[in-house]
Amino acid sequence: MTATLKDDALARRHIDWPRALRAIKALRANVDDIQHAYEVMIALDGGQMETMYQRFLGEPGAGALLAEQPSLLGTLADSDTLLRLTPGSFGRAYMAMMEHSGYSADGLLQASRLAAGLEEILPGPDRQWFIERTGCIHDLLHVLTGYGQDWAGETSLLAFDCGLEPMRARIVGLLGTALTAPWWPNFWVHRFLRRAWLRGKRARIPLSYRWEEALQRPLEAVRLELAIEPVALAHPQGILAGGQTLPWRYAASSNA
Question: Which domain of life is it from (predicted)?
Fold first, then answer.
């Protein structure tokens, strides 16, 4: 039994580049197939997510949070309660963003599937709860950073995430997208993404953060607490918009 556990641990620390390349090729052919994205994350993980989980366990308050295991997914899906929050609150800003983008449960559904999709590297109910919670944070970071939900906004948030938690799969995804971005004039898109990366690197977001409580507080107070630079300071020319099939451009943030 001990040998089996050791072999499993070694397997999770192994980076499987052939598997990653096959998954990346399949993902490029069908960007909407989330299963290929899971394959990339699993193949390139090499133990990074387990390290992140162990870091979570070492944070103050993590033990109590793990014992309670509140459902952030359930909180974000409860639109009636979120809409009753005070105007200017983080939760109301989240609902405004979701309504503006044509609110659907797709993002939350993907977050719920994330745990099952990554069970190979994060097995067990505690780790499954942790990774589902981590997946739910994605749209909350859109609100806090002001980055849009279009191609350029997702790329900007990916750069922010790379600064916050430089996982191999994130870095590979960012580099792949950056290669398709316009280089002229003067690498302007890449310089924007570098600023987004620095913004993430300077942020201070605990893995054990109580998001359910933060949703009730003023948006600006949450940004200040988590050391997320205001858009006007991080990106004085505006946020990146467009991308993929649309021209890349600067645009004003709707919740800066």
Answer: Bacteria
